[in-house]
Write a structure and sequence with these properties.
Rossmann fold, 258 residues, 8 strands
Length: 258
C-alpha cells in the first residue's frame, strides 16, 4: 500500500495507527491472496541502507509499520519540512502480532509459528493458546529445522497466517519470497524475538519506558551484544550515506575547463 518515503534512508513506511494496521491485515487475510507485513525497527532501517534487497522487501510489503523510535522521530522531523508524511504512531511488532492473533482466534484463522528454539516456539504457542482459547495452531516449526522441512510443513498445514521469528533480515527475505510463489492464501508477518517474549525467556521493557520510546535502551541493558551490533550497523549506514553523498557531489560538480 502507499506509504511515506523517508528521505535519506529512502524507506517506505505506512503511517498507520495500530487499529488501522490491524484492519488492513484482516482485509488482506479475507482477500484470499498472498501478502506480507514487516515492522522495521531502527536497526533494520539502518541495515537496509547497505542492503538494497532488504530495502526493497520492506518498501514493497503490503504493510510496512514503524516499530523503531528512531524511524518514528525521523519521519516527524522530515515532516516539519514537508519532506514526507509523518508516521502517526509507533506500531510495535510484538503488539501488532499479538493483536492480530487475538482477531484470528475469533475468526477461525489457522496460524503457524516458525522460528526460535524448539522449546521457545512450543511455549509461545502454549501462551497464545491459553490467552486466546479459540486460536487454531496449524503447526509449529522451530528455527533450527532445515528450510525444506519447514516448507513442507507449511504446505501440509495450510495456515492462513504465518508468524516468522527467524531474525532479520532472514525472516523478511523468506516471507517476501513465500508470497511471490503460487499457493494457498497466506498472510505472513515477521515478528523478530516475539516468540522468546511469549515463551517467557525475554522480558519486555516496562510499559512507561515503552510509552516514552526507550524500549531500545532496555534491550541494550538486557542484551549488551545488541549495542555492539547496532553500532556496527550504524557505522555501515554512515559509510553508505558518505558514499552516496560523494557520488551526488561528483555528479553535481561543474565541469572544469582545461
Amino acid at each position: 500500500m502507499a506509504g511515506t518515503c523517508l528521505p535519506v534512508i529512502k524507506l517506505n513506511i505506512d503511517p498507520l495507527t495500530l487499529p488501522l494496521a490491524l484492519q488492513k491485515a484482516m482485509e488482506a487475510l479475507s482477500a484470499g491472496k498472498r501478502a506480507y507485513a514487516v515492522t522495521p525497527n531502527t536497526e533494520t532501517a539502518l541495515a537496509s541502507l547497505a542492503d538494497p534487497k532488504l530495502k526493497n522487501v520492506i518498501s514493497n510489503a503490503h504493510l510496512s509499520l514503524c516499530d523503531g523510535t528512531g524511524v518514528f522521530l525521523l519521519s516527524r522531523i522530515f515532516s516539519l519540512f514537508n519532506l514526507c508524511r509523518p508516521v502517526k504512531e509507533r506500531v510495535c511488532g510484538i503488539d501488532f502480532a499479538e493483536e492480530l492473533v487475538k482477531l484470528c482466534s475469533k475468526s477461525g484463522v489457522r496460524v503457524l509459528l516458525w522460528g526460535a528454539r524448539p522449546e521457545n516456539v512450543k511455549n509461545a504457542a502454549k501462551y497464545l493458546k491459553k490467552k486466546y482459547p479459540g486460536l487454531i495452531i496449524a503447526g509449529l516449526c522451530d528455527g533450527y529445522l532445515p528450510e525444506p522441512v519447514a516448507m513442507r510443513a507449511l504446505c501440509c498445514d495450510k495456515p492462513a497466517l504465518l508468524l516468522a521469528a527467524l531474525g532479520s533480515p532472514k525472516q523478511e527475505y523468506l516471507i517476501s519470497e513465500l508470497c511471490k510463489k503460487k499457493g494457498p492464501p497466506l498472510f505472513a508477518l515477521a515478528v523478530g524475538g516475539a516468540f522468546d517474549v511469549w515463551a517467557g525467556k525475554c522480558k519486555r521493557a516496562p510499559a512507561p519506558l515503552r510509552k516514552l520510546g526507550f524500549e531500545w535502551l532496555w534491550r541494550f541493558a538486557c542484551q549488551p551484544f545488541r549495542a555492539k551490533r547496532f553500532l556496527n550497523t550504524f557505522l555501515d549506514a554512515l559509510s553508505v550515506l558518505g558514499q552516496q553523498r560523494g557520488k551526488a557531489n561528483s555528479q553535481n560538480a561543474p565541469l572544469q575547463k582545461k
